[in-house]
Design a protein that fits this description.
2 copies of one chain form a homodimer.
Chain A (H helix, E strand, L loop, with lengths): L3 H5 L8 H24 L2 H8 L3 H8 L2 H24 L9 H17 L2 H13 L4 H10 L1 H17 L8 H21 L6 H19 L4
Helix pairs in contact in A: 2-3, 2-5, 2-7, 5-6, 5-7, 6-11, 8-9, 9-10, 10-11
Chain A binds a DNA duplex (30 and 30 nucleotides) through helix 2 and helix 4.
DNA sequence: AATATTTTGGACACAATTGTCCAATTCGTC
DNA sequence: GACGAATTGGACAATTGTGTCCAAAATATT
């Protein structure tokens, strides 16, 4: 938990110095907001974790509301970008459907659903959604609003190609995602961070059940 | 949202007057904690919503930490009690499996997963789990720790009776619950409260997919 | 090496909140 | 109607957090 900022950061040394500190602030803010919620997060705590003076935060990012806004916006962008990057590897014309869909599921779990950005966002949406209505309208638009239809489209493609037997691709997409997230959510609720080693098993379980329900039978 | 305490309350008039106010406080506290998080919830706000003076809260329930503890404990008890009450109606020897399992799923959705208590708890666990470790250990013990095995046991019973084809009842239980919660979660994340009229459809969808995957074929 | 920019830390006013005390008041009960 | 208990509202100190100002120090730029 203390190094989740490290997971979120990327080659800081190559950035201009100002941006470097800015990133440190945003990462620290993301952590603290996630841990304490909006009301519980103090600017001082963020400053300490970022290794920066409190004044620098006000200089670079203005007041608390704006800091929160910037953080959410950045994480949203990274998160959805990551999701669609994985979605581009969806097996549209697989030779071994179960094998390739399982591998895809594992990628999705690892890079989109497990990753700290996405989890952090989901948590914040649940807690602060009512406080920043405008902010979360755009999140909804770019989050579930775009993700589920995109998954549904891929599944419909598989159905059309004769791999699957679907009468409602949108429903299938929701159920596929739900199956993928089944074990993940339980771990999260139990405060347990899913070990890397179990992800393949989770992907296999979800995919197997999904295909048992929807794979075209010959 | 303003009347979610009403949903949680039950025939207050029949209670002794002191307990009556106590319940009003607990209901209001549940709402405010859920909306604002622990840090963001002010005793004053709770007092106002409960229609009670701030002092009365301190008289009856002590400080903020204890108030929170009592609220979580009460909701936990109500929530798990409700869950197991529904679970007792599980169709162990159904004539029409899909029909009866669908009806059971609808009951579970309505009375256990949709209900404000459960949702409130899940939210609080995500946000304040780290702040009250002991409290949430007991929650985990009586929440997921007991619910999933109980569901697994019922499914195993169905499998043994020849209705289902399961090699891992525990996994099947997690997936069944995940399928049930699929649409629910999306609604929640979108800040949309699931309309009563859609619950039957959600139960039917989840049950149908579950049985497509696990019903024994003849 | 000189200059411009950013960062720092400390001081400050202001607002919100917690938890306590207490006298006045309301309420249920006899 | 009178008694006792609970409730109320207001005042209070202590704490915490926000956001600003500013001069000194560190850092980048030329």
């Amino acid at each position: 938990m203390k190094n989740s900022s490290a997971e979120r950061s990327q080659d800081q040394d190559t950035w201009p110095p100002a941006q470097n500190k800015r990133q440190a602030i945003l990462n620290a803010a993301a952590d603290i907001f996630a841990e304490e919620g909006f009301a519980g997060a103090s600017i001082d705590a963020i400053a300490v974790r970022a290794g920066v003076s409190r004044q620098t935060i006000y200089n670079q990012l203005g007041d608390k509301d704006n800091l929160f806004k910037v953080v959410v916006t950045e994480i949203t962008e990274r998160s959805t970008a990551g999701f669609f990057r994985v979605l581009d590897t969806f097996p549209v014309a697989p030779q071994d459907l179960e094998k390739e869909l399982t591998e895809f599921s594992a990628r999705l779990l690892r890079k989109a659903m497990c990753d700290p950005n996405g989890r952090w966002l989901r948590k914040l949406v649940e807690t602060e959604g009512t406080r920043f209505p405008k902010l979360f309208e755009t999140w909804k638009e770019y989050g579930p609003g775009k993700k589920y239809p995109a998954v549904a489209a891929r599944l419909a493609q598989l159905a059309l190609a004769g791999y699957l037997d679907l009468d409602d691709p949108a429903l299938a997409a929701r159920q596929y995602m739900a199956l993928l997230g089944a074990d993940l959510r339980i771990d999260q609720q139990l405060g347990r961070q899913t070990p890397e080693s179990e992800i393949d098993q989770m992907a296999a379980n979800a995919t197997r059940t999904f295909l048992r329900a929807f794979a075209r039978r010959h």
